[in-house]
Amino acid sequence: MVRANAAGDLPSLAERRGNEGWVFPDLVVEVAGELACFTRPELKSERVSYPVMTPSAAVGVLEAIYWKPEFRYVVRAIEVLKPVQWMQVRRNEVKSVISAKGVRDLQADPRKRYDVELDRDQRNTMALREVAYRIRAQIVPVGNATAPQEKYREQLRRRVDRGACFSQPFLGCREFTAQFGPVTPDLIPIDRTEELGVMLHSIAYTPQGERYRWFRAQLQNGVLAVPRSPLPADAVAMPQAPWRADGREE
Asked: How far is CA 243 from CA 161, 204, 248, in A?
């Protein structure tokens, strides 16, 4: 028997279904690596990582394993499976990215050259070491989907079980490679609760360009719960400092 709520309204089908309205249980993938860096948005030149993987980084890992244009991933939660450990890395990095026009000019005139020694700088990275996470996500078919959702879910599971991927997954930076696999039953989230501030929820691609969407992140007993909807567009004001690797037209 379906019972009405306190207001006397009958619950919707999604509410009766449970699992916050999702039809299927969460897809679960575990990832681990020696190093990771999930950079806070307010710190650009000197990278400082969040203490936990971000939803956008989790989507990147899943898409590296299995991706089709017929669906998108929605990350619901990220579990931290190893204690948070920090490590400082100092590296030589280029200060700018050469533009396509600059490359064409170099190819056309052999007298011109690009000297990286004149365009590099040492930068610090406050990274994480010996990390392990459990990603819980759902698959959402988009308008051009030609197969049922169950097919995409099963293909992801098979690739995770085999260790197959389209490209090497990484943890924030491409040089911080990640290993992945199915659930390890004896691993449980760490005992850590912390306010993490504003975190990137997702990126919307519009005709006007990329639009970044945010949410207020909190680690609760080792679990980062990701809301289905981000904060309103006017709720977050991020600094507009120039990106450290802007392209330059020469």
From this structure: 39, 19, 12
Domain count, the chain: 1
In a domain, 13, yes or no: no
Tell me whether residue 29 is in a domain. Answer: yes
Cβ-contact 69, 215 below 8 angstroms: no
* Inside any domain, residue 136: yes
Cβ neighbourhood burial of 193 (10 Å; 0-12, 13-18, 19+): exposed
Residue 51 has pLDDT above 70, yes or no: yes
Can you give the CATH number for the domain in which 81 is found?
Answer: 3.30.70.2660
- Which pLDDT band, with edges at 50, 70 and 90, does 94 fall under? confident
Mean pLDDT of 169-175: 93
Asked if residue 31 lies in contact with residue 132, where contact means CB atoms within 8 angstroms, the answer is yes
Look at 52 and 101; give whichever has higher pLDDT. 52
Write down the pTM of the prediction.
Answer: 0.80
Query: Could you identify the residue written with the tokens 């931290």?
Result: 80
Is 242 inside any structural domain? no
- Which residue segment(s) compose the domain that 181 sits in? 23-95+124-230
Contacts of 128 (CB under 8 A, 6+ apart): 35, 36, 37, 38, 49, 51, 84, 85, 86, 87
- 75 by DSSP, 3-state: which? strand
* Residue 96: predicted pLDDT: 74
- Spatial contact of 211 and 203, defined as CB atoms under 8 Å apart: yes
Tell the burial category of 219 from Cβ atoms under 10 Å away from its Cβ (0-12, 13-18, 19+): buried
